[in-house]
Structures are given as C-alpha cells and as structure tokens.
Amino acid sequence: MNTPDKCAKTLGRAAIATLMVLLSPTLWAQLGAAKNATPEVQPEVRSEVQPEPPKDPLNRSTPRKAVLGFLNTVHRGNIEVAALYLNTPLRGPDAQTLAKELAVVLDRRLPARLNEISDEPEGSMPDPLNPDEDLVGTISTSEGDLDILVERIDRGKLGKAWLFSRKTLKSIPGVYDELSTPAVEKFLPEFLVKKRLASIPLFEWLALLGVLLLFVLFGLLGRLIGLVVSACRRYLLRNADLKNPQVLSSPIRLLLVAFSIYWLLSRVGLPLLARQFWSTIALIIVVIACIWLLVLFNRWGERFLVARRPSLSGSAAMLRLVRRGTNGLIFFAGLLFALHHFGVDPTAALAGLGVGGIAVALAAQKTLENLIAGISLITDQAVRVGDTLKLGDVLGTVEDVGLRSTRIRTLDRSLVCVPNGQIANMSLETLSARDKFWFHPVVGLRYETTPVQLRSIITSVRKLLTGHSSIDSSTVRVCFLRVGACSLDVDIFAYVFARNWDGFLKIQEELLFNIINIVSEAGTEIAFPSQTLYLAAGASDKALPFMPEIAGKRSIKANEGEPGMRY
Fold it and tell me: 376 forms bridges with which residues in the sheet?
C-alpha cells in the first residue's frame, strides 16, 4: 500500500476519535468540574506490579510437598527426577544412587508422621538461627540419632525450593549400609511384592482384607469367652436362665484391631508411605472406637438414671435431650481431633458455625424459651404427671410433661397443651401436692337444741375426730361458734391425711355421716333456714296477711299461755 493511502487512513481514524471525544457528555462534565475546581498538584504515583514467583514444576514449595514428591517420584521409578530433590554437588549416576539410598533409609527408618511436617512455604522454623531449615524426622542409627533435614535454596530467577540438606545426605550412605532386607519381603512371594495395583503393592491390599478378617476373629473370640463365662455363672449361681454376656463389644474389637496394626507395624518392615497409610487407618479406627464407646456409655448412663428415677416426671425426655447433645459434642470433638491430625485448621469452620448458631438461636427464640422452661420445670419438679393443678382458667390433671409443652386433661375431658414458657411465667396451684386436706364444715342446729344436747354433740364430734386414724389430732377444733339467724352454728376444724383429692372425699363423706348420726342420737336436728314469728295475745287472723314472707319452714306461735299457730 502506498504512503498517501496510509496517511489518509491515519487521518480518518484520528478524526473519528476526535468526534467521539467531543460528543462525550461525561468528558464535558469532567472538564467543567475541573475548570471550577482549584488546581492541585497531584503527585505522580507509579504502581509497580510485583512479579509472581515462578512455580516449581516439581512442587517443592513446602517441606511436606518436597518430601512427599520425592517419595512418590522414587516409587514411580523416576530416579533421575528424584535426584533433583537433593541439595548435593553430585551429578548423574552418583546423584541417582544417593537418591535411591535416601529413599530406602526413609522407607525403613523414618517415623510415619508425614502429616506433622510443615506445609508452609516458610517451614515450621524450629531454629530461629536457621530459618531456612526444617526438621522432617529423626531416625536411629548405630552412631546415635540422625535428624533428617530439608533446607530452602534460593535459585535466583527460578525461585526458592526445599531440598534435602547436605548435612543429612552426608550420613545417608553409612545408614544405608546398616539396613537389611525387610522381614516381610523375605517370606512373601515375589509377585505379591513386585505386583502393584494403583501404585500400591498387592500384599498391602491383601493386608486390608486381613484387617477385616481380624475384626471377625475378635468377634468369634468374644463369643467363645462369653460362652465360657456364662457356663461358669450358671454353675456357680445355680441359675439356668442367665444370658450369655457380651464380652467383646464392637468398639472394643475395633480397639484391638488398631492395637494389632500398631504392633505389626513395629515388627514388620514396610515402606514409609505404607506405614503412614496404616498408621492413619489405625488412628481413624481408634477415633471411631472411642466415639462409639463414649456414645454407648452415654446411653447406659441415661438408662441407669431413668431406671433409678422412673417416677421422675419428664426425666426421660430431658435425659434423651442431654444424651443427644452430648453425643453431638462427642462427634464434634472427634472430628476436630481428626482435622487437627491431618493438619486442617478448623478455625474458619468454627467461626462459621458460631455465626450460624446465633442466627438459629434468634430464629428459634420461642422454641428455645419453651425448651429451657421445660428443663427448669422437670428439674425443679414443679409439675408432675398425675398432678391436679390449676393454671389460670385451666383446671385438670397433668398427663404428660414434655420439653416444649405440658398436656393437661381438664374436668370436661378435653386435652389442653400449654407451652412450658407460659407455665414458667404463671402462678401455678398444684391441688394434689397438698400434704393435708382441710376438713371444715359448719353444722347448724335448731334453736330447740338445749345446752346439754349442744355440749354432748360437741364432745362426741371432738372424740370422733381425735380418734380417727386419718386426721391430725393436734389440729382438731370443735366449738360453738355463734348464734346464727336461723341456727346454732358449731364450727368443726381439722386436717385430714389423704393421698389425693379422691381419697379425701371418701374420708369426708364418712365423717359427715358420723356427725349426722351424732346429732340424731343427741335428740335434735340440723336446722333448716327458718324464722320464728311471735304474735301478741288476742291478735286476729286478719293480721296474718301483713306478715313478711319467709322462705322454708315457718313457725308462728302465740304469746305465752296462748296456743301457737303453725303454718
């Protein structure tokens, strides 16, 4: 293309750009604001972008990744690549030989604690004087303990990488000469050792089946021991109905399997990764068995407390809630322990659970209020099943005390469900919780009763009450109370021992019948509501219509010496 055409295209693009700028209202607004604003001198800010450090293709950025990468590379047979994990001046076959010897030493002697190696780019820094050096583990040699160290090497533009330190590599050939062929590889067929499935030797997969078989064998052993113990108990106690005890429960068998794995690891020479795998399996089995045992102990404790206090109202529901909450804490503690063992920091998860717990608590405020009130009622034994109580306008018998609500059967046989939060805030009157029942009738005798008859009735009633087995004799009081409008009133006061309201009603009925008999035997009667009107001598019958109306039995008598008139 010629030069004039290029110039034309350049000018056309510049014109279009200028037109777009002139038509932009945002730019004009910014120019107007800048015109009215006070000019300020802005310092020139230069943002320097820090270049990211180059990524290591062998992933040697942390001590743990360097150790695991070295072991995996050796097990895959890449000895040339494995030599790159060593900080050694050796090259070629010599470096590869040193890598093989180091791998064998680590496989046979290094403790299976790879999860404890630091996974931070800076390492764990156990020695402040050597911040670029980290401890992998300590192995035993004929000359004493040897620390397996890794150190961080600065490779300039290639970045920093963790390599096995020269101090450690100097002692590896001598330690390698002390090693012998592992015992497990002496007795196994060659194809079980050489044949691999998913980079794992075949005999290790067979060992997993052996663990399951070991669990079954411990179960059979437990049954055999149970049969022997049961036979001895039947013979000694002379009781043929005794059941066979369960000697080795499932969690106990799991613990025995875990201890067997630890014992075999100390006796059988396995590669480091295999020992790490089986150590992790054993630890997981121990955690599961401990959680299982604690859950079983928790359930046994609940059953023991419920059986010890079977009449405790609502105890089963409260203990069940406590047991489930305790089980949740047990599972949570086991999970935290496992996460800590594998190097996972649960701080963020705990913070999230805390925020979520606050949200749930706010959303379930009423439910939690009823729940806490229910626990308080059950603990204080304020309400029990079978109690007759009066709660506001509700009068009835308690049928069930739950954690959220209490069910009351009223006198008309309807079922009322009252939230425990309301019961905790209301005045509660438990009628069946009385230690004594008040017996307090007032007996009205006719005015015709003589003083002798009245004294005889009082004495007989007092003797009846003090001699009754269901009455508190120290509270008996029988006295002539007052001359009433229609009768001579005798006040009877006593407290009755009874289990419940129905029992008191039966005792009260018996006492009232006896009191009526006493009054009848004294020759008098219980008064009706009546009035007596006395007329002056010589009064005519015409005055009768002007008499006030009297309810009940009416008696009209003439003056002294005149015959009375009774209607």
Answer: none
Q: How far apart are the C-alpha atoms of 296 and 251, rounded to whole Å?
A: 9
Is 457 contained in some domain? yes
444/546 same-domain check = no
The pLDDT of residue 133: 87
Token pair of 27 as six digits: 């730019």
Give the number of other CB atoms < 10 A from CB of residue 489.
17
Give 336 or 85, the one with higher predicted confidence.
85
343 in the same domain as 231: yes
pLDDT for 435-482, tens place per residue? 788 999 999 999 889 999 999 999 999 999 999 999 999 999 999 999
Which amino acid, one-letter code, is at 566?
R
Identify the pLDDT of residue 532.
Answer: 64
Rounded to whole angstroms, the Cα distance separating 148 from 164 reads 8
Spatial CA neighbour of 541 closest among 567, 514, 502, 518: 567
Per-position b or e across 497-530, b if 16+ CB within 10 A of its CB? ebeeeeebeebbeebeeebeebbeebebeebeeb
- Per the structure, the count of domains in the chain is 5
The mean-pLDDT minimum among 73-87, 90-104, 395-409, 493-507 falls in: 395-409
Q: How confident is the model at residue 240 (pLDDT cuts 50, 70, 90)?
A: low
Give the DSSP per-residue string, 404-440.
Answer: SEEEEEETTS-EEEEEHHHHHHS-EEEGGG-SSEEE-
Q: Which of 377, 397, 432 is the last residue of a domain?
A: 432
517 belongs to a structural domain: yes
* Identity at 46, one-letter amino acid code: R
In-domain check, residue 263: yes
What pLDDT score was predicted for residue 456?
94
Domain identity same for 139 and 161: yes
229 and 281 fall within a common domain: yes
Compute the distance between CA of residue 294 and CA of residue 170 in angstroms, rounded to an integer. Answer: 50
- Residue 558 burial (CB < 10 Å; 0-12/13-18/19+)? middle
Instruction: Tell which wins on pLDDT, 120 or 378.
Output: 120
Q: Which of these three, 321, 348, 375, is where a domain ends?
A: 348
Contact between residue 188 and residue 226 where contact means Cβ atoms under 8 Å apart: no
What range does the domain containing 538 cover? Answer: 531-566
Residues 324 and 416 in one domain: no
Task: Decide if 20 is inside a domain.
Answer: no
Stretch 138-165: mean pLDDT: 86
Q: Which residue type does 357 have? A: G
Q: Residue 23: its pLDDT value, please?
A: 38
Tokens linked to 133: 């050096």
